[in-house]
User: Fold Rhodopsin domain-containing protein from Elsinoe batatas.
Amino acid sequence: MGSRDTLVAYFDSNDLDTEFDRVRDLTVLMFTLTLLSTLLRFLSRKIQDIDFYFADDWWTILSQLAAIAQYTTIILTFSAGRQFFRGESPDETNYVRLARTSGGMYYIGVSITSIMLAFFCRRVWHMVYPRYARFSIAISIVHLGLGFTGSLLIQCTCAILKQPVTSVVQCHPQLWLNWIAYIFSGITVLVYLSYSIPLIVVLARSQQNLLSKIQIGPILLVGYVAPVSSILRLCALVKPVREKDYSNNVFDIVRWSILEVSMIILSINLSTLQPLFREVVRLICGKTSEKSSEKVGYNIN
Assistant:
C-alpha cells in the first residue's frame, strides 16, 4: 500500500474534518496570542522605564516573525491537505510545496528561539556558572545543526506521498528523518528545560509582592508548555522509530509542535524579565546595587 493510500485509510477511519478543525483552531489561537503578546510587549516598552538590549529586540523580532510564518504555513498546508485528501484538488503539487515550507519554517523558528535563549543565558549566567554558559551555546549549535539537517531532509522526503511507506525514498531511508526528529525533540526538551528551570529559581529567590509574581507567573507557565509538548511529541515518535511504522497520528505530532512554538510567546517577554535576571546574578555574586534595583523596579533580597 502506498503512503498516500495509507494516509487516506487513516483519514477514512477518523473524522477528518474534526481533526483539521482542531488543528486550525489551535493554530489560530496561538497566532492570536503571539500577535497580542507582541503588541503588549511594545506597549510596555513605551510606558516602562526598563533597559532593553538592541540585540535582544532583533532576536525577538526574528522569533515572532518565524512563529507567525509557521502558523500561516500550517493553516495553508492543512487547507490544501483537506482539499487534496478529499479529492477536491487532485494535484498534490501545492500540498507538497506547502508541507515542505511548513516543515522548514518549524525547524527554522525553533532553532532561532534556541539560539536566542542560549545567548541570553550565556550573558546573564556567565558570572555565576561559566561552564553552564558554554554548555548552552554548544547545545544550541547542535540544535541548530539538527534543525537545518531536518529541514533539508524534509525537502527530499516529501516524495513519500508517491512511494510505499517503508521504501527508500529519493535520497535516504525514511528512518533517518524519524531519528533526526527524535534526537531534535530530545535536545529541544533539554534546551527548554535549561531555560525554564533557572526562571523558577530566579522567581523563588526574589522578594516581590503578590501582584508582581502574578504578572510574571503566567509567563513562566506559558513557557513550560514548550518542554511538556516537546516531551509528548518525543514519546509519539518512539513507536515509528522502534517499529518502523510511519503511519502514526500526524495530527497529534502537529498539535504538539504548534504548542511547542508557544515558547516564542515567552521569548517575546525576555527583555522584560532581563533586569530581574541581572539583579539575581548580582545578588549571587555579592554585587547587588541598590541604585540598579531601584532603576529596574524589582525588590530582591
Notes: The radius of gyration is 21 Å.
